[in-house]
Design a protein that fits this description.
Helix content: 10-25%
Radius of gyration: 23 Å
Order of helices and strands: HHEEEEEEEEEEEEEEHEEH
Structural class: alpha+beta
Shape: flat
Number of strands: 16
């Protein structure tokens, strides 16, 4: 499956009421998940929802600009006409030179965030402003405690939607990062599969903070429903309606994306600003 998939095979089989075990339909269902995910990204006009780095080259027009990707987790650099612009002092204080990012909404869906530049005029020129930043849906610094008894595992709480990517673990007391390993972690290490974090006996009882990317639940649901609709549509290819004994007519929704799925996606769409 693609790392950009917005749901997974187990969830789709459960939604369709299919047995959880391996079946001849698995390859088809996996392909439909990827296809449905790509359709959703196109409908949203967004290349990804998970945290990743962006380098956005912008035509200078005004001192306030809106970044294309959200929610913004951090801005790493702002360069105007080749000059590095530093972060501004905190909001509410007197500002002279720097940039200031509008905070995100804290919960999905969020909105495109404004970046304000203080102390420099932004001339109207092509591609004279470069903003490097990290954006995507993420839970950062979720406080958990490694169990004191085996198994030394804990699950991401995932309050807004299913876990999708690991962004690291640190010890709460010192902020020291633990190392990610594929399996069999030792002291100071961890491994993670599907949002389940495993530690070693050497870290039993330790307070940790975990960070991870997630897919908002309504987007994951939209991917489920769209992939399921496409799977069932194979049973009636080319049909718009059919009559049952002349007494009843069944009409099928043949739109590319059904109205319920579009309603789930609408709050996440990028709009021109």
């Amino acid at each position: 499956m693609s790392p950009y998939d917005l749901t997974n095979l187990a969830a789709l089989k459960a939604w369709l009421g299919l047995p959880a075990g391996a079946s001849p339909n698995d390859a088809t269902l996996s392909a439909l998940i990827t296809a449905a995910s790509r359709v959703i990204y196109a409908a949203l006009s967004r290349p990804s929802l998970l945290p990743q780095s962006y380098s956005e080259v912008i035509d200078g027009e005004r001192e306030r600009l809106f970044l294309r990707h959200w929610p913004v987790l951090r801005v790493t650099s702002v360069t105007l006409e080749g000059e590095a612009i530093p972060p501004a002092v905190p909001a509410g204080a007197l500002r002279s030179l720097g940039y200031l990012l509008r905070p995100d909404d804290g919960a999905p869906p969020g909105r495109q965030q404004a970046l304000d530049i203080f102390g420099r005029h932004v001339p109207r020129r092509r591609q004279n402003l470069v903003v490097d930043y990290v954006a995507g849906y993420a839970v950062q610094g979720e406080a958990q405690v490694v169990p004191s008894a085996t198994p030394w595992t804990l699950a991401a709480l995932a309050p807004y939607g299913p876990w999708a990517s690991d962004m690291g673990v640190v010890t709460a007391a010192t902020g020291a990062a633990l190392s990610a390993v594929p399996a069999a972690p030792t002291t100071g290490q961890y491994c993670v599969v599907g949002g389940a974090y495993a530690f070693s006996a050497g870290d039993a009882g330790a307070a940790v903070e975990i960070s991870y990317g997630f897919i908002p639940q309504d987007i994951a649901q939209a991917a489920l429903e769209l992939a399921a609709e496409r799977f069932r549509a194979a049973e009636r290819i080319g049909l718009r309606s059919k009559s049952l004994g002349g007494q009843e007519t069944i009409a099928y929704d043949v739109s590319a994306i059904s109205a319920p799925v579009l309603a789930l996606l609408q709050p996440y769409r990028r709009v021109a600003v």
